[in-house]
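Run log // design_07
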């Protein structure tokens, strides 16, 4: 998958290598700006273990997003009928769950995070079997709610997960296309 991003750069995705990527992912998931990722106290070996578990799970996948070949974001996709949302809503055929995390930086680029979520959504909808994307961010994460809305997500309701109160939101292919064209 290759998507033109900010300026003349290109986004690409590859599977996370739990051993090779754990060190820098540890810095990302424990950074104060990643508080909603809920891994603030994780040790490097905890991060490696978590991504080894994902790599072994047929219903959950972790992908590393590169911008011009440099690691820039993390994306997880999962089957909400089997992970994360089991028993919390009625999944429909073609539902795909998603999480994303942009790498921390001392020099933020205006519009970069929006370009990342747009690239993530394009990647998910490249699969013709994906009918809609499901997200469940923490209700307090207003920044991600705004990003989600910008790419077409519509909140449905709050749900109680073991680790948080989440805002269950959905985005169909049509909602995404309409949002990114507008």
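design_07 sequence
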């Amino acid at each position: 998958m290759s998507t033109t991003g900010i300026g003349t750069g290109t986004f690409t995705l590859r599977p996370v290598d739990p051993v090779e990527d754990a060190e820098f992912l540890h810095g990302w998931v424990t950074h104060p700006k990643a508080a909603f990722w809920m891994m603030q106290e994780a040790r490097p070996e905890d991060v490696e273990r978590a991504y080894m578990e994902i790599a072994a799970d047929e219903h959950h996948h972790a992908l590393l997003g590169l911008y011009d070949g440099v690691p820039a974001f993390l994306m997880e996709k999962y089957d909400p009928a089997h992970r994360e949302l089991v028993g919390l809503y009625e999944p429909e055929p073609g539902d795909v769950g998603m999480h994303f995390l942009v790498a921390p930086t001392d020099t933020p680029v205006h519009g970069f995070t929006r370009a990342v979520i747009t690239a993530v959504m394009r990647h998910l909808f490249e699969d013709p079997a994906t009918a809609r994307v499901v997200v469940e961010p923490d209700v307090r994460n207003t920044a991600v709610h705004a990003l989600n809305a910008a790419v077409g997500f519509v909140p449905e309701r709050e749900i109680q997960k073991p680790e948080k109160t989440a805002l269950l939101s959905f985005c169909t292919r049509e909602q995404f296309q309409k949002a990114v064209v507008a």
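Confidence is low (pLDDT under 50) at residues 1-5.
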